[in-house]
Automatic annotation (TrEMBL), chain A:
Family per record: Belongs to the GST superfamily.
Name of protein: Glutathione S-transferase A-like
Domain GST C-terminal: 98-223
TM ranges: none
Domain GST N-terminal: 3-85
Taxonomic source organism: Pundamilia nyererei
Superkingdom of origin organism: Eukaryota
InterPro entries: Glutathione-S-Trfase_C-like (IPR010987), Glutathione-S-Trfase_C_sf (IPR036282), Glutathione_S-Trfase (IPR040079), Glutathione_S-Trfase_N (IPR004045), GST_C (IPR004046), Thioredoxin-like_sf (IPR036249)
One Pfam family recorded for the sequence: GST_C_3
Automatic annotation (TrEMBL), chain B:
Name the UniProt record assigns to this protein: Glutathione S-transferase A-like
PROSITE patterns in the record: GST_CTER (PS50405), GST_NTER (PS50404)
CDD domains in UniProt: GST_N_family
Pfam families linked to this entry: GST_C_3, GST_N_2
One GO term describing the cellular component: mitochondrion
GST N-terminal domain mapped to chain residues: 3-85
Domain GST C-terminal residue range list: 92-222
InterPro entries in alphabetical order: Glutathione-S-Trfase_C-like (IPR010987), Glutathione-S-Trfase_C_sf (IPR036282), Glutathione_S-Trfase (IPR040079), Glutathione_S-Trfase_N (IPR004045), GST_C (IPR004046), Thioredoxin-like_sf (IPR036249)
One GO term (biological process): L-phenylalanine catabolic process
One example GO MF annotation: glutathione transferase activity
Lineage start: Eukaryota, Metazoa, Chordata, Craniata, Vertebrata
Length: 230, 228
């Protein structure tokens, strides 16, 4: 099973990390993998383009199946390997509690995309926007938007005493969102201003699937301070 | 079942349309609904904010379960009502994987459309921050994206849905974007496969039943995209 899988990935990229965590959680260790460097432009190499015409990572193959969307890969792995490893999305049938849980998990999973986008809008601003198109007003607004978003997640975490995003158990919501939270902290987010996010980060850091997939480049170098004033 | 559901929505909003289609496909007609005007900023009204602190539509409630993300609502409905209406997630691994791939590419597709059609709206980009160079780049990115989707449909052949021979969640979430493209004047001559897909889906009962009311009132549409 795992031997028929190949993942092309980059260190520290939340979309890649989501799939790495999902593979661990579903007991699919033993997959083939290739670590590539974004900095060296390896995500645009022929090897990646052959699997993913968009030239993006993660790129994931399972036999003839190709899924180059991190959410897609995570959902597919949960669906196809439902009965092994951690149950990331409960079954609905016949249980009101489970249905409420699915609703919450799905809500957080997809809000996770918003969180990730808002974070990327800030720290990639100078890389994505040509110099002559940049505006202090725009950058300021993006930072304010990120701040509002982070405060919302602080609020979410205050409401789930279990410590995971959807309550007492680790779920798909954590697979999807934790990597973005980790990147925020890596980029200098203030633990004093965002104590619940910091607590969540520390709690998940200890999880085996997270430890096993911690970005190799993060172990070698210190983080940045880009987001310390957010 | 449907009577315990409430959907707050806006006409022509693709995220809202996704949920409307899903409700029809799962035979959940009879849900409570309220139409809000996005133009009049009614999505920021207290009624919406009370359920969705983000002040966005769609906002969906089923009993005590609140879901304010269109994809989340669609997955939830398929999961809760798996055994009724249309089966929206195929069992076959290849088809299922393709469905997931297209669904999530659908988010990118929607984003690339928005940064073109809403570029000149103040709520999207304030006038002082707009640049011809940016709009040009956004249009080029949209063209690249459109060509990708043309190629996807080309590979599957005439009359197919996005993940193959069956209608799936991929169509539920992506068709509204395609509907919007043609509403804003996309040329079916330049994008014949998308045109064919649009013509196929617009006849589907769930799509007809949920067609944006203001598009019915003024069928003409815009021509923002006619030259791309």
């Amino acid at each position: 099973m795992a031997k028929d899988m190949t993942l092309w990935w980059g260190s520290g990229s939340p979309p890649c990390w989501r799939v790495l965590i999902a593979l661990e959680e579903k007991n699919l260790q033993g997959y083939n993998q290739k670590l590539l460097s974004f900095e060296k432009g390896e995500h645009k190499s022929k090897e990646v383009m052959d699997v993913n015409p968009r030239g993006q990572l993660p790129a994931f193959k399972f036999g003839d199946i190709v899924i180059n969307e991190s959410y897609g890969a995570c959902f597919f792995l949960e669906s196809k390997f439902k009965s092994q490893g951690t149950k990331l999305i409960p079954d609905c049938a016949g249980s009101d509690n489970n249905c409420a849980l699915i609703a919450l998990i799905m809500q957080r999973v997809f809000e996770g995309n918003t969180l990730h986008q808002k974070m990327v809008d800030v720290f990639m601003y100078n890389r994505r926007v040509p110099e002559n198109e940049r505006h202090e007003s725009a950058f300021k607004r993006l930072k304010e938007t990120l701040t509002t978003e982070l405060q919302m997640w602080e609020g979410h975490l205050k409401k789930t005493p279990g410590g995971f995003l959807a309550g007492e158990n680790f779920s798909m919501a954590d697979v999807i969102v934790f990597p973005s939270v980790a990147l925020l902290l890596r980029m200098g987010l203030s633990e004093d201003k965002y104590p619940k996010l910091a607590e969540y980060y520390k709690k998940l850091q200890g999880r085996p699937s997270v430890k096993a997939t911690w970005p190799p480049t993060w172990k070698e170098t210190p983080g940045q301070e880009l987001l310390k004033d957010i | 079942m449907a009577k315990d559901m409430t959907l707050l929505w806006g006409s022509g909003s693709p995220p809202c349309w996704r949920v409307l289609i899903a409700l029809e496909e799962k035979s959940l007609q009879g849900y409570n609904q309220k139409l809000f005007s996005l133009e009049k900023l009614e999505h920021k009204s207290k009624e919406v904010l009370d359920i969705n602190p983000r002040g966005q539509l769609p906002t969906f409630k089923h009993g005590d379960n609140v879901i304010n993300e269109s994809y989340a609502a669609c997955f939830y409905l398929e999961s809760q009502f798996k055994s009724q209406g249309t089966k929206l997630i195929p069992d076959g691994p290849a088809e299922q994987a393709l469905m997931y791939q297209r669904m999530f590419e659908g988010l990118t597709f929607y984003e690339k459309l928005n940064v073109v059609i809403y570029y000149t709206f103040n709520w999207f980009v304030p006038e002082g921050e707009r640049h011809e160079s940016a709009l040009k780049r956004n249009k080029e990115a949209l063209v690249t994206e459109l060509r990708l989707w043309e190629s996807y449909l080309q590979k599957l052949g005439s009359g197919s849905y996005l993940a193959g021979s069956s209608f799936t969640l991929a169509d539920v979430v992506v068709f509204p974007t395609v509907g919007t493209l043609f509403r804003f004047g996309l040329s079916p001559e330049r994008y014949p496969k998308l045109g064919e897909y649009y013509n196929l889906l617009k006849e589907r009962p769930s799509v007809k039943a949920s067609w944006p009311p203001h598009w019915l009132e003024s069928p003409k549409g815009l021509d923002t995209l006619k030259d791309i």
